[in-house]
Amino acid sequence: MFAAPNEEEKKRIPPGQYLTTRFPVLHYGPIPELDLENWKFRVWGEVEKPLILTWDEFAALPRTKLTMDLHCVTKWSKLETTWEGVSLQTLKELGLVVPTEKAGFVIQHAEFGYTANLPLDVMFGENFLLATHYEDEPISLEHGAPLRGVCGAIPGRDDLKDVYLWKGAKWLRGLEFRASDLPGFWERAGYHNEGDVWLEERLQDRAW
Ligand SMILES: Nc1nc2c(c(=O)[nH]1)N[C@H]1C(S)=C(S)[C@@H](COP(=O)(O)O)O[C@H]1N2
Ligand SMILES: [Mo]
User: Fold this and answer.
1) Lowest CB count within 10 Å: 39, 50, 136, 163, which one?
2) What CATH superfamily is the domain 7-25+34-188?
3) 148 in contact with ligand 1, CB cutoff 6 A
4) Does the pLDDT of residue 206 top 90, yes or no?
5) What is the pLDDT of residues 32-57, one digit of tens each?
6) In sequence order, which ranges of 71-172 are alpha helices (DSSP H)?
């Protein structure tokens, strides 16, 4: 459903986007089954030590709550969405995920081989969460349960990098820390590597 933005909202809508009040479901391929018994979250690569957590262990981590505007490259924007989850900063402070000096990029790995790549500093920004909850409820299966990466825009925080929503992997199962970049699923399919919503970085900027 289209919605007409008011003056305040207009400033929060990047060029070429329109406002929706729905929450569209968008992904390539099937929706996985929820199997929390066998679910594991893995972190590997350029980190001080690799990490494997069960669902119970992940669910016991301290969570951050955050309200963000979401911008999908297919041009819908949804304002004021509230997420709760674990930030990379929290994982670092707990000593669970400590990047090495060489680490410059993080690849999110999801079910069925979906990946999304972001620079380390974007992943550590306050507008990126390993999210378990949406609007105070566990995330629904179609939106990525039990865990998804989510990146949005926090109004007024011009210091943060705002990227399109494809840069957050639903059904997230692991993070690979790397010295060099590696294009993700949509990046290889022709989408822009950086995906800045304010610069309208929608389509490919380079050949891989
Ligand atoms: N695992 C997985 N995550 C994914 C995708 C996908 O195809 N597979 N699509 C991305 C895209 S293009 C968008 S716009 C958002 C949509 O999230 P939503 O379905 O919760 O709106 O998920 C992103 N994360
Ligand atoms: Mo998207």
Assistant:
1) 136
2) Oxidoreductase, molybdopterin-binding domain (3.90.420.10)
3) no
4) no
5) 999 999 999 999 999 999 999 999 99
6) 88-93, 120-123
